[in-house]
Structures are given as structure tokens and as C-alpha cells.
Request: fold
Amino acid sequence: MVDVAAFLDRAQRAEGADEFRLKSFRAALGQLRSGGPDRARRVLLRLSDPTAKPIEAAGNQNACGAWAGSKGTKIKKKEGG
Amino acid sequence: MRFIEPHAHMVSRTTDDYLSLAAAGCEAVCEPAFWAGFDRGSVEGFHDYFCQLTVHEPRRAAKFGLPHFTWLCLNPKEAEDLQLAAEVIEMIPEFLECPNVLGIGEIGLNRNSRNELKVLEQQVDLAARYRQLILVHTPHLEDKLKGTRLIIDALKSDGRIAPERVIIDHVEEHTIALALDAGFWAGMTLYPESKCTAARAIDMIEAYGPERLWMNSACDWGVSVPLAVPRAALEMRRRGHSAAEVDRMLHGNPAKFLGQSPKFKLAAD
Reply:
């Protein structure tokens, strides 16, 4: 928890606008305070690409940590039962 | 404590790791074909790699008393080049008769692209035609959920594929139910900085039960821990799981899945 707090302090000291991953991170943090037994799952869902169609080409071989299209979308019902 | 390491990229590890694994009670290492950290430039490069997996690495493991098994494939990170992929897939059957080859893997997706999906489907077809077990790599981070769904759809759409002969590896809390509910096995990869920790893996074992689950280190050329599996056993014991329950997760479950290949034999067998 202290590492997360220190990271947020560090991000606040940095210059420039929030990168999209930081926005996703802040949105996912909200899941930690909510009730329910599946916070880890909901955090991962919040950071995930929710789309279904394959992309045209893998221009970059590496994932980056959060879906660039995420705009704080409401999480759907539990996946997979 | 005995264990099987069902997913370790030993070509990228030193003999110190073999020594550590053997000393810690490992009874077998299983090594899927993977991305070397760079894109191989030719089908000859893959041929050399498959020779390394089927001839040289088993010899290296044997010096430490460890049976070495392997899986063969073209990995998803190198799947954008369809021409190269076709040549590699055509070559794979030449190696399937090797005594340590258990199946096709680790196939899957990386960024969830069209070409990756085409190559995945071609390798699923290969596995079906040659009746091979399948080991699946699910993508990293934000791509994992979408990729797991696409992979499961591809597997389920091929009626020749028996779910109990497929393991979906690198599951996390948002994908484990997708794999288990579809009848597949699910693997949890214990990395220090990504994928899953031992604590989270054991949380999932406690939530879903021990059926059709295994843990692995997937140790490779990146930051990874070859002894992650026996260390996870310590966490299980700390939480009160019995020695029998630990043995099931570390030895019984991997042996059950891998034993579906007649080639999988332990030294004690």
C-alpha cells in the first residue's frame, strides 16, 4: 500500500499531463474500496481491453499495462460464471 | 517435497538452475517452445531451436537426473509473418516423434491480431491432426482477457479438440473461470513482477478448488524464479493446506495432465 501511495506522490510531482495508464490506474484504484470478494478480478477487468474483434496487425509486440481505449467504462456482470 | 515444473524455458537458464531444481525435489521439467527475445529470421532458425529442445536440452537436464520434456510450436510473437509461420508449422511434424515431445505449445495470442489468430488456428489444426496435447499462452496485461476469449472460441470451434487435453496457461483472476468453465485445464504462472504471485495463485486454488489447475514458474530470460513452485508450496503450508494437498498441486495435477501423453514418464516410473 505504501508503494502505491509513493507512486502516486511521485506521479503528482512529475510534470506533464497524466498518461492514459495513470488515468486507468486511478480508475482501477476505486475497486479497492468497494465491497465484495473479487477486487483483484475487478481491477484486472478495469485495465483490460473489453473489445472482441482481433486487431488488424500487431504493430508493437508488447502490451503496456492498460487498455488505451478505457474511459472509465462501467464494469459488466461477473465474467465466466 | 517433490514437484514437477510444467513450464520452464530452460534453454535460457544456466546449469545452476538445473542444480537448484534437482536439489529442491524437481522430478521433471517441461519446456514449451517460446519467443527467444528476438524474432527468428528463418525456418532454419526454428529447426535449430527444435533440435535444441529435443536433443541438447534433454542431455543437459539428464546431467542433473532430470527428465526433460518439450512442446513445439511457432509462438504468437512471431506470428505476423504468415509465410514463415506456414514453413515452421509444416516442419513441426518431423519432430513430433521425438521421445520427449508432449504436444503443441505454447501456442496462443500476443496482441490479438488477425495473423496471430490465423496461426493459432493452424496450430490447433496441427495438434488435432496429430492428436497432440495443447499448451496455450494467454497474452499479457490488458490483452489477456480479450485474448483468452478469442483462444477459447478458437479451441471450442474445433470439434476434434478435447478440452481436458488443453491447458490454458498464465491465467489470472479475470480469466481463470473462462478456462475452467469451458472444461480446460488452467495454469497459474508465478512471476515476481507480473502475471501472478504465489499468494494470488493460492487464493485462486482456494476459490476454485484444485481440479484442473497447476502452478509453474515459466522461468525464462527475463526476471523470473525457477524455484517459484516449491516456494509456493511453503505458502500453501503456511495457510494450513495439508502435505497431500500440496503434493496434489505440485506433483499430482501436472502428472495427471502431462500423463495423457504416453511419453511422459518420471524417473521413478
